[in-house]
Design goal:
alpha/beta; Rossmann fold; 8 helices; 6-stranded parallel beta sheet; elongated
Length: 223
């Protein structure tokens, strides 16, 4: 199971369940030259990353314009995965991209915040690199994932119904940026997640090969 109890709530499990949460996470690689130049131009303020995953490339225009306007008011640079029309409220500090090396950006020393939909990959990569989240869940398990981080003081959650009202998006961004507890809590989760005797993928491979070696592993049966 793609589960790590740094992130999960306690649950009873049988001996034949092996946890391998965060198996896809890895140290960041150097960024492409144009992205490295952009994030370095952020100076002491750093940069914000926004992505809503592979299934959602754009939001309704009303929400998109509010998000772009909020980003324009920040001193940070912003890299935003957005494939729709260019928002009229977009500021000079925001770079729109069709694709980005998400893991490498999350692992960059100048990253300050991740605006994310709460998918499993993005959440686990944010934990691995210790980057706090402003969450905008859309469907599936995303709200559930973000609730776990909110409970640990590492994320702030918005909804599509309220994100574009009363400067809610800007307020959420500023809260997570300006309150050190969000980053401290996420970095603590990162330290706990990384402190394992084996990497999650190596653990999974060991137990797969264990079953292959021993065939009928009766000691793991639940009855």
């Amino acid at each position: 199971m793609r589960v790590d109890f740094v992130f999960e709530f306690p649950r009873p499990t049988m001996p034949n369940v092996i946890y391998m949460g965060g198996f896809q996470c890895k140290p960041a690689k150097p960024l492409p030259e144009h992205l490295e130049e952009f994030v370095q131009s952020s100076g002491e303020h750093g940069f914000i990353l926004m992505s809503l995953g592979t299934f959602v490339s754009e939001l309704p225009a009303e929400i998109t314009h509010e998000i772009a306007a909020a980003f324009a008011k920040l001193p940070q640079k912003v890299i935003w995965r957005h494939k729709g029309d260019r928002p009229v409220t977009l500021g000079n500090n925001t770079l729109l991209v069709d694709w980005m090396p998400q893991n490498d950006l999350l692992g960059h020393p100048k990253i300050k915040l991740f605006v994310a939909h709460g998918g499993t990959n993005g959440v686990q990569e944010a934990i691995y690199h210790g980057v706090p989240i402003v969450g905008l869940p859309l469907f599936f398990d995303q709200h559930d994932n973000l609730l776990r981080l909110k409970d640990r003081g590492a994320a702030k959650i918005l909804t599509t119904k309220t994100v574009h009202k009363d400067n809610n998006f800007l307020k959420a961004i500023q809260e997570v940026l300006n309150q050190p507890s969000y980053r401290m809590n996420m970095q603590r989760l990162s330290r706990l997640h990384r402190d394992q005797p084996m990497k999650p993928l190596d653990t999974a491979l060991f137990w797969i090969e264990f079953v292959m070696r021993h065939k009928d592993v009766y000691v793991f049966r639940n009855a």
